Amino acid sequence: MNRKTILSCVVLFAMMLSKMVFAQEQPRIQIGIKGGSSLNKLNTELADLDDKYALGLHLGGMARVNFGSAYIQGEALFSKRKAALKPQGQTETKLKWNAIDIPVMVGYKFIQQQDMNLRVFAGAVYNYTLNDNLSPLKAIKEGVKHFDKSNIQFTGGLGVDIQKFSIDFRYERGFSDLSNSFKSKPQAFSIGVGYFLF
């Protein structure tokens, strides 16, 4: 056996060993916790109502199943959402509501290294409203009194994993209206920070 063949075998063995080590360092199933903030907007089509973004928060857990460079991630989040509305001739008011969000996403790690991944992902979010303390203004309450407690949203974005930490930048937009009284497909920009416990 010549030197070139021996060298090729050593290189091949080293590559296989590095893949095995990497596979052990990144478990197939990962479970963790996460929290973050979001900018929410009702996105109404009412001409006499100006809607603006307002800051909200979320906190919960996540689970990820890895398939090499691809993965599926599910989450269960408690969210405190806000949105700002300003009817013509009146002062701005904040709408506040709590919700449970269940995102399910499919992602791909387009850069995958031992201690760092860069990811792209997309999926859907089931949103269930727990309460609807929407506004002190009677006119707005009348407009959203048929607030739909269930809503399906699209989500997509970019993420980065650094060791056990995970950071996501997301965009969300509703498939259905929040209320039967007027068209309002909510949208949000969010950032979340997670930590995989194992």
UniProtKB/TrEMBL annotation:
The keyword rRNA-binding does not apply. The keyword Cell membrane does not apply. It comes from the Bacteria. It holds the Pfam family OMP_b-brl_2. Residues 1-23 form the signal peptide. InterPro entries: Beta-barrel_OMP_2, OMP/PagP_B-barrel. Keywords: Signal. Residues 22-179 form the Outer membrane protein beta-barrel domain. This is PorT family protein. It comes from Sphingobacterium athyrii.
